[in-house]
## 1
Amino acid sequence: MTNAGIVDPVFAVSAESLPSLPGVAFEVIRLVEEEEVDLDKIVATVGRDPTLAGRLLKLSNSPLFGRTHGVTSINQALMLLGLKTVKMATISFSLGAALGGGAAAEGRGEEFRGFWRRSVTSAVAARQLVCSQRPDLEDEAFLCGLLQDIGFATMLHCGCPGGGFSPRAIDAGHPEPAAEQAALDGYTHADVSAQVLESWGLPAVLCQPVRHHHDPDGLDANASGETTQLTRVLNLAHDVATIVTSAASRGPALKAARDKAGRWCGMDAPAFDAFLEGLTEDVHEMAGLMEVDVGSRDDMAAMMARAQEDMLAMAVGATRELEQTQSRFEELRTKAETDGLTGIRNRAAFDELVAEQWEQRVSGAAQTPIGLIMSDVDNFKVFNDTFGHQAGDEVLRHVAKTLEKASRSGVDIVCRYGGEEFVVVTPGAGYEELEAIAERLRAAVAEMGVATADQGILRVTSSFGAAWLETIPEGMTTSHLLAVADRNLYLAKAAGRNRCVVSSYD
């Protein structure tokens, strides 16, 4: 289909067969848009259609406009509603006649009921969604919401074949786009809807949102703010209609609607839930004014109740999913920072932890000394060659546990540095305390025995080199302190092993 009304014969909708508004409706629209509006002419024109006049009176007395009876004349109704609302309402109330009424729907009542159910729900939802940000667009939002799916009704009205336009498909949020385009030779029901509006002479600010209500990103980059706002609202209103009309598609629509309501309308989850709760009554109020069948209040209320249950389940599910994700993240992080052989922190964890301790002191967040102790199992290569790697691994596991047990619980940080080397971070320890910790660690390893099945009790010793720093000079890094600790470890080994060498950083 094109904007010029040339329609592909695949789905047999021609410009001549598009639904037309009654003459009275066209006349009202023309009069409202004149530069010098003549209220008397509008009143007289509306009076020629008693059904339209009655509906406008009902609308002006409706709770939707905060009124409970009192408006008794078309003149009063026009003054209360305003010309723009009268124009939009006239089009809305004329839809039944435009689609041919009951004759055209003969044998297809459920299909048209599905159309009205979605359309009125979308219209009311769109009007309420836009009012908090752009109350000046309420009438446009309502009309666009009502007409965004008129392409379906047009094809039903014209007796178009198949295309997946079943009541179930329409209520479920429409056929799959690919199937729809295949049936309509590359076009969609939104294209048909937009052409109907264009054939009625409606402005682009209404036609473009309808054409793009399933694809807000497809709007022209130069589209006006009003067009963009209406297109997004229609897209969200479509999801809302799916929530309250389709059990099968409710879950995905609910998730999408909540996200869009937050991004586009500034509505948090509680506000969106409250919005949905109040929708049923307003939809049936408007359906009554339009004298269209949207199904029973009970059915719609039940659907809404199930939607509320789904929202609660989603909230609980999201919380559980977040907890599971966080738990899994912690598991992965722990695994990444844990040495697979000894079960203590690994080199990567040491690098991160010592960097954190360093930053605290550089920034002034911590004003205490810091010490590093490096240890190395003495003659470990010879031990491995003599007793085997399995015995060597068991010794390393015992050394790791012994170092953790002999260090200050909850304060010192013990890590495997690599091979048979271990490192201990001692935050806040004074110089003498660092000496005492290093000696306690050395003695604990020397006293340790590793029981084996075939080689009896195995024993090893370790050498220790420690470096202490009271305050961090400008420009100094952790590598400088590590270098001092490593130098002292070398000195301990050179002096005969199984001993400690401790010094402060000079």
## 2
Amino acid sequence: MSGIQRAALVLIIIGALNWGLIGFFQFDLVAAIFGGQSAVLSRVVYGLIGIAGLITLGLLFKSKKY
């Protein structure tokens, strides 16, 4: 796994935890940290998490080499 894939995986885990908080407690941690959902920095974080999802999508179809 490359460094970019590892970084993308970390961002996806952050996004998943954020969605869990939204689902269970109606609390958006990213928005709380970066100044609301419409704040520029929050939108950048949301965008990076989306790009990370696209990057790691390839891991689903990658065959294991032993």
## 3
Amino acid sequence: MPITTRTGDGGFSRLLTGERVSKGDLRLEAYGTVDELNAVLGVVLAEIDQGSAAEVHEPPLRSNILETQRLLFLLGSDLATPQNANVQIKRVSHEDISKIEEWITELEQTLPELKRFILPSGSRLGSLLHQARTVCRRAERCSVRLSEKEEINNHIQVFLNRLSDYLFLAARQVNRELGGREIEI
């Protein structure tokens, strides 16, 4: 299958239902931002595998990021398919949210309590996780705007909210392991 189809040259794209929508449509912005988040997480994985973090990161981080990338593909197809569509797809579920919440609980037990805000910085890997967190927050805001316009799976916003919390804690944990300094403000 060729990658260049020329079907989007006029500024339109097709949803999984076959419906043509503007590339400026809020639905496309939402799942496009989820795709951007997935790409940032790919850079996180590259840093884990090739960077200085390869020797010291906690093993669950890599598997959690890979699982997150799989879930983001699911979430993207969920956003790309209207709730009332006659297309059967797997959608983000409460179980997916629970998985992220378990990761959060594990990290919260190992990290010191925050008493002030911190700047997104520290190690390179920690900073990349902070960047992923901010893209995740943007994806959440896009999904909220979309939900105000039309019905979407109500688990999407919760999932993205929990994922951004996880990415924040993962950044803190990585910085702690790599000696990246948390700068409080």
## 4
Amino acid sequence: MAPEFTNSLLVSDGARCVIFDAWGRADAWEKLLARRGMRPVAIYATHGHADHISAAPDLAARYNIPWFLNQLDVPLVLWGNQILDFWGLPRIADDFVRPHDLRPGRVKILDDIDMEIIASPGHSLGGVMFYFPEYKILLTGDTIFRDGVGRTDLPGGDEKVLRQSIANLMARDLPDDTHLIHGHGDDSIMGAVKSVFC
């Protein structure tokens, strides 16, 4: 696990926004949001590793908003403090704002934006992906990358389970021009990923 090229995402309908994988420092996020004239209404995490949630509990407290993480990954929140120490980032407090449980299904995150939560364990026990069918965008977290898969040597990792999650994704047969935003590195499209994994 390393923070290089961790991809966080803002989805907005104007002044309101939702943050996905709130990596980094809460102070930096606060400055960014103020500069863009945005106020977050929720935070969603693809999984509980520190390089995807380091700012989430603090931001949830500062803005009094919910953050969402599959409950199977909640034990990873404080486990990640040893990693944050290594990177020189603020620790997550023992009494951190607890996340709301994140379960598969379709939800409305903003007035005009629907999202499907897709279970994708394997990189972690509670890993998920976020799919925006109307926009043909998939946030894969660390389940799958442009030319590889997430690592399975961290707590909750399981290579067999990860491979099944990827097989389940391929079975959905999403449109080839679906835009994939991975947890790290460059984006890709579904057609290119299918050519690697199918």
